[in-house]
Structures are given as C-alpha cells and as structure tokens.
Amino acid sequence: MQWFETPEHLVNESLGSDRATCFRSSSVEENEIVMRAILLTGFAALSTLFGGWLALRARKHIHLLLGFGAGVLLGATFFDLLPEAIEAAGQGGWTSREILALTVVGFLIFYLGQRFLALQRCPHDDCGPDRHVGRMSALGLIAHSSIDGASIAASTMISWRMGLIVAVGIIVHDITDGLNTILLVTRGGSASRKDLVFLVADAIAPIVGGTVVVLSGLASHHLALILGVTSGFFLFTAIGDLLPDAHRRSPGFGVSAAALGGVLFIGIAVRLASISF
C-alpha cells in the first residue's frame, strides 16, 4: 500500500481558506447586526417625526396613545428586558441584584434629570410661553433620544428578537418624544423653522446613539449593564411621565384601558417572538 502525503503548501492554502471563510462569515454577521440596528433606530426616528406631526395636527386622542405607550414600556421591561439583561449579565459574572441596582440607578437618573428640566422650565410653577427655556429643555429630550438608540442597538447585539421587542417599546415612546419636543419649543404656538430643526435633531438622535454603540463593539455582558439602566428609564417613563400626562389630559377610564392594552400587546409580542426566533 502506498501512502500519499498532502503537500505542505496545499495544507496552508486550505487553512488560509478556512480562516478567510470564518472572517467573511463574521463580517457578514456584523454587517447584519449593524443594518438591523440602523433599521430599528430608523423606525424610532420616523416615530419621533410622527409624534411631532401629531402635536401640530391631531391632539384629540393623544391621551390614549400615551396610556398605550406606558403599557408597552411596562410590559417590555418585565417580560423581556430585565430577564434578558439578567441572563446576559451572568456570562460576565454579574448577579441579578447588581442588574436590578442598575435599574434603580437608571430610574433615579431620569427622575432627577426630568426634575432639573422642570425646575429650569418652571422655577416658580409659572410656565409662561418662554420658547428659549423650552428649547433648552428640548435639548434634554434629544440627549434622551440618543440613549433610546443606544438601547435598541445594545439589545440587537444580544439578539434580534430582543432588539425588536425593545424597539417596539421605544418606537411607541418616541412618538411622545416628538410630541413633547414640539410642545416645548412652540409653547402651544405655531412652529417656526427653528422649532422644526429641534424635531429633526430629536429624530436623528436614536440613529446616532445606536451607531455609537454598534461601532464600540461591547461584549454582551457589558451590553446587559446598559439594558439594566434602560429598564429603569422605561419604568420611570411609564409611571412617572406618560401615565400622569395621559390622566391629566383625560381622567377617564380610557387611559387605564389603553395601558392594559399596551401590556397585553407587548406580552403577546414577546411570546410570539420567542416562538418565532
């Protein structure tokens, strides 16, 4: 029997081909994550613009939208965001207590931030039509929208399903961001070109925030820390911002029904996503 040895240069070529294939596969996967993050943050941008349009054109049913958005954020937090963040954090040696502590930190950061903006806007509970102060407050919303985009990207880098669920909550919420941006800069008056610039900046901010997170290449357990803070932000936005605003606009039961509908909607979405993905 005659044995034949594979020439060394052929072995090296084969190994090089395998490495190139792995590299191309990794590059394709990274490109898919980037495109998904850009797609989802793009939808968030469109929802912000839609919210601005609502503020200018259709205010009759805004209270129901606010209630539904609050329910979506609550459901996304407890049905998907926190469980996934705790699971991903375990890969880096973080405990569930530490993730929940970050949730509290996120809640307090956004609570204190809102109180600061409120005091800047109405230091003596006298909210007169001051567009300059309103525009300063709108800058806070723009920074907040960039964090929305970062949260979408961080979720997408962990899994496409999770990114989709988080994006749904943020997309619904960003409608109110666009709404609030216009209300702040116009003070109930007609919108000028400068006011529309603030709306466009608020719409672009999620894309910028998401791009920064994607390009940073963070590990999944580091992304989980961002999601822990995002959970606190979702909770505060739902119970400290959207629901009070909705009930102030309409004290009836419609807001509560819309909130329950939002919770059920995101619960079903998470269940279907877990089966599909």
Write up what this structure looks like.
The chain has 277 residues and is mainly α. The protein has one domain (52-276). Helix content is 86%, strand content 0%. The chain is built from eight helices and no strands. The protein has helices spanning 8-57, 62-90, 96-121, 131-158, 160-186, 193-216, 220-249, 254-276. α1 (8-57) runs antiparallel to α6 (193-216), α2 (62-90) packs across α5 and α5 (160-186) runs antiparallel to α6. The longest helix is centred in the first third of the chain and has 50 residues, at 8-57. The protein is globular and about 50 Å long. The termini are far apart. Mean pLDDT is 75; it is low at 1-6 and 20-24.
Offer a few descriptive terms:
mainly alpha, 277 residues, single chain, 8 helices, disordered N terminus
How would you concisely characterize the structure shown here?
The chain is 86% helix and 0% strand. With 277 residues, it is mostly helical.
Approximately how much beta-strand content do the residues carry? under 5%
Q: Which stretches are poorly predicted, pLDDT < 50 over at least 5 residues?
A: 1-6, 20-24
The radius of gyration is 22 Å
Helix run count: 8
Task: Give the beta-strand count.
Answer: 0
- From the spread of the alpha carbons, the general shape counts as globular
* H and E string: HHHHHHHH
Our measurement of the CA-to-CA distance between the termini, rounded to an integer number of angstroms, reads: 52 Å
Give the integer mean of the pLDDT values: 75
What level of helicity do the residues show? over 70%
Major pleated sheet = none
Structural class, please? mainly alpha
Number of domains: 1
